[in-house]
Amino acid sequence: MTLDHFAQNAKSSWWNEAGPDADIVRSSRIRMARNFRDYKFPTIYNKEEANKIMELVKEKLEKSNDPVAGNLELFELEKLEPLERQVLVEKHLISPNLAEDSLYAACLLSKNEEVSIMVNEEEHIRIQCMVSGLQLTEALEVANKYDDWVEQQIDYAYDEERGYLTSCPTNVGTGLRASVMMHLPGLVLTRQINKIIPAINQLGLVVRGMYGEGSSAVGNIFQISNQITLGKSEKDIVEDLTSIVQQIIAQERSAREALVKTSHIQLEDRVYRSLGVLLNARIIESKEAATCISDVSLGIDLGYIKNIEKSVMNELMILTQPGFLQKYAGGPLQPYERDVRRASLIRERLDSAQIENS
């Protein structure tokens, strides 16, 4: 299996419509931070020690007969082109930090792209599992299988009182970050999101954009995750986040119903104007594209648009990112060139989708 397997298709298996409440919850993610015993942590190790960690992981993967290991492919990031690393970021398979600091860094990817193990990021490894819809418990079960496999190969840095030891103090304890990616246009359009985000923060959760820390919530996509990993079990973290997300889902559905009831014509007009832009624009920037894709996705959910599948809009959300655009173009593009190619790609994909469903 080569990197082309991951770079050619925009949609990962989890980026589909199969999961519970997938019209609002795009994905559920579990991420585990782990370090190895008797090795310096990434915050203080040198290049030689970082290389030892990567070689250790490679050795254990190659020698293991476990089916879990057989499902993984290792890629050394230094050997990838910058555009290839950017595509992996845009597909949420690696973090922006790992892509930028790629020396002696690697990622292990499962064939279905649900599992990614990042090597030598902020911790020695970060095990990540992503699934469609609101399925945090299911994602945790999968992540635990890979976590158990790694622990059978290499002893973790663990303290009986503190739990898993990490470079970042906020990860000490379970080392678990649970998060959901949510599409919340109803709450944004009714401006309720301005009240909900502070309330979420007070509950010990954090709200970020689609690509995590430092990213903005373009296209009405928000990532909600836990902040506390110490003093709570993995089960408690997942159950608490699930409970809060279910409340947000209910509020988003209520907001959509209110918009349909009180602003039906204005909402329908917004949806079809955005569809018109996507079908006809010759130049479009990424932020405008994301907003229009969000509007059309909402229109599909509400039944205004019937000849385009929701999966097409999910695909376009990834395809229109800078890395994918340049990957398909065969090399770097200037911002203006990306805007032209983005508009062309969107028109072609929507024209094809409408023909398929006509």
From TrEMBL:
ATP binds at residues 27-31, 92, 126, 177-181, 208-213. PROSITE patterns: PHOSPHAGEN_KINASE (PS00112), PHOSPHAGEN_KINASE_C (PS51510). A motif (RDXXRA motif of the pArg binding pocket involved in allosteric regulation) lies at residues 338-343. One of its GO terms (biological process) is phosphocreatine biosynthetic process. Appears to be allosterically activated by the binding of pArg-containing polypeptides to the pArg-binding pocket localized in the C-terminal domain of McsB. GO terms for molecular function: ATP binding; creatine kinase activity; protein arginine kinase activity. The keyword Nucleus does not apply. Residues 24-255 form the Phosphagen kinase C-terminal domain. GO terms for cellular component: extracellular space. Belongs to the ATP:guanido phosphotransferase family. HAMAP family: Prot_Arg_kinase. This is Protein-arginine kinase. The gene is mcsB.
